[in-house]
Amino acid sequence: MNKALKKNTFRVLNGIFLAFLAALCLLPIIHIVAVSFSDQAAVSANQVGLLPKGFTFASYKMVAKRSAFWQAFGISVERVIIGVIINTVITVLMAYPLSKNEREFPARKIYVWLLIFVMIFDGGLVPNYILIKDLNLFDTIWALVLPAAVPIYNIILTMNFMKQLPGTIEEAAMVDGANYFQRFIKLIIPLSKPVIATVTLFSFLNHWNSWFDGKIYNNQTTNYPLQTYLQNLISNSDMTNAAEAIENALSNVKTLQAAQLALTLLPILLIYPFLQKYFVKGITVGAVKG
């Protein structure tokens, strides 16, 4: 078997394998969307596969009337905006000095090892819980944002990306009289757009998909972010009053849950295409050098 045939065979098998993995990810999403648009009788009879049965917008009309869903949606949007801004600013501000050599930043190795240490050895749930309680952050947006304010993996990824940037660019700017801050703003940030877009996407997904912290750091269900609200919905713990219980009894709970889950996917589907072109370059180049 010659090399060309081996290469073509590998490509075909690799394509089949990746298509299989993509199908495993997409089919459940397609099924949820199909259920959300299906008639409740068809859903109750388990007749819905990948296409809706008895196409209807009834579940979405009911979701539109649910103030609890939209309140949780708003809390998640607020969390994402604040959290992503904090994560991105801290990431680039820490990654730039850490990308320098020991001559420019003598304590660089110490800080890098400290970051790796705290990434591997976490304090645990109980100390975090006590800290949030002592800071009186329960039932506030800061309880969801501040514990994840320093994304160490993102910092290391960005640091490695900045390390591979040509040093001659900064040297030329330094000869022209640019200081570290000017070089950082006018050179490093524009050149680091791929990795910044990548870590921004990571931060967005982390904040948008997180539900457990919303559960433990909020005593009031009205302060739940969207994913925590949906977790309660799926476990049927969101029926906190008689009116809501009656509403669910008169409708098909599965279609209602599917509609809310489908709406939750929309922000990811809308944002990802804009950042996808930077994703591969940002994560591959940032992972090359240590």
TrEMBL record:
Record's subcellular location: Cell membrane
Any Gene Ontology biological process: transmembrane transport
Assigned keywords, A-Z: Cell membrane, Membrane, Transmembrane, Transmembrane helix, Transport
Species the sequence originates in: Eisenbergiella massiliensis
InterPro entries membership: MetI-like (IPR000515), MetI-like_sf (IPR035906)
Entry protein name: Carbohydrate ABC transporter permease
Domain ABC transmembrane type-1: start-end pairs: 73-274
GO CC, alphabetical: plasma membrane
PANTHER family: ABC TRANSPORTER PERMEASE PROTEIN MG189-RELATED-RELATED, POLYGALACTURONAN_RHAMNOGALACTURONAN TRANSPORT SYSTEM PERMEASE PROTEIN YTCP
One protein family per Pfam: BPD_transp_1
Residues annotated as transmembrane: 69-98, 110-130, 142-162, 183-205, 258-275
Family, per entry: Belongs to the binding-protein-dependent transport system permease family.
Chief location: membrane
Membrane topology of the entry: Multi-pass membrane protein
